[in-house]
Fold:
Amino acid sequence: MANSEPQEPLGDASSTLSGGLDVDALTWSAMLGRWVDFARAALVLPDDSHGHRLRSVVPDIIMLQACWFALGRLDGLPRDEQALGLDRGAILIEKHTERVRSAWSPDSPPSQLLSLIHDAHAQLALAQSAYDAASPAPIDGEDETPPVQ
Structure:
């Protein structure tokens, strides 16, 4: 599923197949199809506590996967949209992580879900690092943040 490797940027020449097909658009479409299949499969989970818990977090699993994927493609966006994407990604990852964890509380979620949560947080950290590395350095003598008064 997810890994800690940064993804290729949107709009990169390598994201277009010969014939003008947009690989990123095709990938999003394929992922959407998989998520629909996953949601349908969740309808037939066992009618027990584990099945109920898993069924309740299907939207959260899908959102964590979507965040992981989207954060790997932020560098293809304009700089201000990258900042917005990072903020939104952080909020969504935290929100959906909390929902997954609370569904299994006081126990720990299954290892596959913990791995997904880890991957989403790792991708956010990678995207933030890439954004920070591309940020212009402050002018000598100027601090990036104003002093607190």
